[in-house]
């Protein structure tokens, strides 16, 4: 029997995710790097107060990101929800000294300069506080997929007082942007290793909590 810790370590060896952090980087250098990288999807870049983080995502990371995006688009279509995908568009604000590329992002209801929802798949943790980044950029809700489950954060304070440890975001059970979305069902379907089966199961059980596959949640 393989222990969970041993399994995770083995997966990281077989499918590594490279992460590099560099300090004392000027904003102009950050923008030059973004220009040099262009539209390549091979790297994710984050910048906060002179600290630069560059991630080369693993296959597991990209697989989870794509599955989440696919299921959300099924939800938007089946529920007739107006949405505008922003993908991994670079969000940045020089005045706030903040920049990041979410794995997936969406404007809900109407198109906007800044997405309402940002989604991150976390395989290996970095040193930059991504919630602080998203707060400075004005993203209302952040979903983090880590250890096969979602953590959901909704922005409450532009200047953190009560929720200091989470940079002004409150950890919540269900999405406030998409209150009709059953996050347990979504999580179960993201964990399904067969994307086609997951999409069919998700569509079948949308809005039907009573018949959702409880055993797999």
TrEMBL record:
Q: What's the superkingdom here?
A: Bacteria
Which InterPro entries does the entry link to? Nuclease_put_TT1808, Restrct_endonuc-II-like, Uma2
Residue ranges occupied by any Putative restriction endonuclease domain in the UniProt entry: 27-183
In terms of Pfam families, this protein maps to: Uma2
Its recorded name reads: Putative restriction endonuclease domain-containing protein
Per the UniProt entry, what species is this protein from, by scientific name? Gloeobacter kilaueensis (strain ATCC BAA-2537 / CCAP 1431/1 / ULC 316 / JS1)
């Amino acid at each position: 029997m393989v222990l969970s810790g041993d399994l995770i370590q083995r997966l990281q060896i077989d499918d590594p995710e490279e992460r590099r952090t560099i300090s004392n980087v000027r904003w102009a250098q950050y923008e030059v790097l973004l220009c040099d990288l262009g539209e390549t999807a091979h790297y994710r870049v984050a910048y906060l107060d002179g600290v630069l983080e560059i991630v080369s995502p693993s296959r597991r990371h990209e697989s989870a990101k794509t599955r989440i995006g696919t299921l959300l688009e099924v939800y938007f279509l089946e529920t007739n929800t107006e949405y505008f995908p922003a993908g991994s568009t670079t969000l940045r604000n020089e005045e706030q000294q903040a920049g990041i590329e979410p794995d997936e992002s969406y404007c809900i209801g109407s198109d906007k300069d800044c997405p309402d929802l940002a989604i991150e798949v976390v395989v290996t943790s970095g040193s930059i506080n991504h919630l602080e980044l998203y707060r400075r950029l004005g993203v209302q809700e952040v979903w983090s997929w880590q250890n096969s489950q979602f953590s959901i954060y909704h922005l409450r304070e532009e200047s953190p007082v009560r929720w200091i440890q989470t940079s002004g975001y409150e950890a919540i059970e269900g999405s406030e942007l998409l209150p009709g979305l059953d996050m347990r069902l979504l999580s179960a379907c993201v964990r399904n290793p067969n994307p086609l089966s997951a999409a069919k199961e998700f569509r079948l059980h949308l809005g039907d909590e009573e018949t959702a596959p409880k055993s797999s949640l």
